[in-house]
Amino acid sequence: MEHLLEILEDLDGFANSVLSSITTRIVQLVDIDPFDYESGNKWDEYFAPGGNVTIIQLAGYDQDETKKLMAEFILWDLWYYTQNGTKDKPIPVILDEAQNLDFSDGSPSAKILREGRKFGWSAWFATQTFNNFSREELSILDNAGTKVYFNPAESEVRVLASRIGNATPEELRMLQKGHCLVLGQFNQEDQTLSNPRYHVVKVPAMSTR
């Protein structure tokens, strides 16, 4: 990390204002340098059989910009790690507060949604709001094979209903605690997948599972 700013300063073909903007955004990340340069790659260990759950928590870092940059670094590293993977060896990853991730074209999140299945990705993007997403980012999110909607804020009801298809705003408003609307393909009696459709599902309490 200590050489990153030097590399940026030596780049040609970029306006000074662009480089200055990039430098300003990453200078704190460079200062705290949160990365370990001695340990080996542990992704194999994290995704080994055994049922262990690994939580990467960024709440200890004060600046939101720093947390976003670290999340993108981690996703890029994991994306390249999975390039030799297959759909027969799932890589389950849950990404909370997904509205803080970069979903622009070419970002790791966009690549995961568009190409991840063939490398084994089983990515779950969780967010409480869609207000922060641009139209282009929402289009990328539409690549998700299955979408699960819990009772949304009133300000988002009509937008979500239009994206779901035949769902009505009232169906979303009527979702009770523990209920969700699931949009995707479902197994049929002949063991084939249905065309995309939605069902309202009651999620069982943890105590009953």
Automatic annotation (TrEMBL):
CDD domains: TrwB_TraG_TraD_VirD4. This is Type IV secretory pathway, VirB4 component. It comes from Priestia megaterium Q3. InterPro entries: P-loop_NTPase (IPR027417), T4SS_component (IPR051162). SUPFAM superfamilies: P-loop containing nucleoside triphosphate hydrolases.
